[in-house]
Amino acid sequence: xxxxxxxxxxxxxxxxxxxxxxxxxxxxxxxxxxxxxxxxxxxxxxxxxxxxxxxxxxxxxxxxxxxxxxxxxxxxxxxxxxxxxxxxxxxxxxxxxxxxxxxxxxxxxxxxxxxxxxxxxxxxxxxxxxxxxxxxxxxxxxxxxxxxxxxxxxxxxxxxxxxxxxxxxxxxxxxxxxxxxxxxxxxxxxxxxxxxxxxxxxxxxxxxxxxxxxxxxxxxxxxxxxxxxxxxxxxxxxxxxxxxxxxxxxxxxxxxxxxxxxxxxxxxxxxxxxxxxxxxxxxxxxxxxxxxxxxxxxxxxxxxxxxxxxxxxxxxxxxxxxxxxxxxxxxxxxxxxxxxxxxxxxxxxxxxxxxxxxxxxxxxxxxxxxxxxxxxxxxxxxxxxxxxxxxxxxxxxxxxxxxxxxxxxxxxx
Length: 413
Prior knowledge:
With about 425 residues, the chain is an alpha/beta fold. Helices cover about 55% and strands about 10% of the residues. It has one domain: 3-Layer(aba) Sandwich (Rossmann fold), CATH 3.40.50.11900. The chain has a 4-stranded parallel sheet with strand order 5-4-6-7, sandwiched between helices. A 3-stranded parallel sheet has the order 1-2-3, sandwiched between helices. Helix 12 (about 290-295) links the parallel strand 4 and strand 5. It is globular, with a radius of gyration of 21 Å.
């Protein structure tokens, strides 16, 4: 049949492209066998399998507990990761052109605008199911529900109430979210016809969490100075690997000096001390000049707000309450006052010289809390800078303006 021959040819070509791409990433990992290189390899290898004919493709929000999927040997498609990867590749121009043609408001978050354009133009695989969480933003829930409707697949959302400004979420709130996860986990099995091994997924996730929690404790105690920009990128991509054997090994590689050597903060000559910055919100993924300029001015992003996740292990016998608590008490979930309080406390603990908030284009969740966060830092006497930009952009007038603001800020510190 001509149609079948065409499909077979396309599948063969796609398979060759995947193989060539993975060979390049694998060679980099072999040349520099660090946690970061292996995480790149394993995350992208798993993601590329989603493009294979017949693959089950769960589109999920960034904070979705992926152990629920890895227990069924499923890999998540996370819109933010897909968008950042595409716009850093040769597909940048066609996916941006496709996004520009869509009838969407220009202030829609670029992560979600690019992801929608990519799936509608066959640059990302279509969803088999769409699974969301109310943390952290409404935009990605709208995206997931829209995709589910267009492709006639299930949409489920874990509804998580806002935590109190002080203290932890109430036990009944955690229990309710845990119950939602139990039901959803069973639904995934019913939709896919697969049998789960949740205990194994949790044990592997706990290995990664133990390693990552230790690294973060050492950083908070000042015994380990890592480059927060590079560390953010590692944890960002690592979201694809929680609950997998590869993810456990990759995070454990961070426990050795050799495994984390490409994530360490740079050192200044002559005994000079680096200016230490706390980075809030996401990062501009493709603007290398901004961070090169920070380093040229003798500064370093010493810690990143969004790296504070998966720091606690979960009970393998009953993992749902532990997984739920990661959502109910996430540091970026809740009121602006809660976020401000936690970040000021973090800045004081780290003894930073200043804090930088990246105002990602279209992110109402992040931008909405900036006035409150800024006021809290000013009251605490900690220099604060909010820079506007697009996490997926490369250069342009806005990026140049942000670099000028950053340069002035660093000179004032």
